[in-house]
Amino acid sequence: GAVVSQHPSRVICKSGTSVKIECRSLDFQATTMFWYRQFPKQSLMLMATSNEGSKATYEQGVEKDKFLINHASLTLSTLTVTSAHPEDSSFYICSAREAGLAGYNEQFFGPGTRLTVL
Amino acid sequence: QQQVKQSPQSLIVQKGGISIINCAYENTAFDYFPWYQQFPGKGPALLIAIRPDVSEKKEGRFTISFNKSAKQFSLHIMDSQPGDSATYFCAARWSGAGSYQLTFGKGTKLSVIP
User: Mutate which of B102, B106, B109 to test chain A, going by most A C-beta atoms within 10 A?
Assistant: First the structure.
């Protein structure tokens, strides 16, 4: 099956610093990548949808200047949490949808990145 | 996004028993209904999925039952095993306008006891 990787798997940073999380589709090209945030014992909350070569579409309530998303190639999307604060501590998960397929093609999820802001 | 309601919030099942998780949706435009399994500290993994033109789909011990008129679908795990202990999320997707966004239920924490 299709594999999506995330790096780093966990990161601890000081308040006020910026953190970049990478999401890669390893064996397929991803037209669309999605970024989710998941708090403990809660469901996945969609933050933004990114299409290769265009600006990301952010969900209501998600600050686009704080969560910078770049989808520069068909295999890589990055999420940068700028000026991170303790309330940004969460589990960030990306997913990728394969390019060139219509209909019911699946989203493949990455293993997640645990962000802890001290 | 339209809501997907999932129940129960938690479920304890004896080994060998049947685990049943239910979901209901509102938006009749949804055209794809996957179930995901998530272990602690891991990303969700697709378990099984169904399209609205099918009433049931079975893969191994996992079965989705789909009731289009009632706008409900459920996951049945037969012969539940301790290794099935995880959080399960139902989801729904509308493929219109090229969106492909998933709407998730709140999740069900399944514990299978020996």
Answer: B102
Q: Read off the tokens for B16.
A: 């060998």
pLDDT at residue A100, rounded to an integer: 62
Residues 6+ apart with CB under 8 A from A11: A19, A21, A113, A114, A115, A116
Mean pLDDT of A62-84: 94
Phi, psi of B23 (to 5 degrees): -140, 150
Could you report how far apart the first and last alpha carbons of chain A are, in Å? 37
> In a mutagenesis test of the B interface, which of A32, A62, A95, A104 is the best target, namely the one with the most B β-carbons within 10 Å?
A104
Contact B107 A49 (CB under 8 A): no
CB B13 within 8 A of CB B21: no
Query: Mean pLDDT for each consecutive 10-residue tract of chain B (114 residues)?
Result: 87 98 94 95 94 94 96 98 98 80 95 96
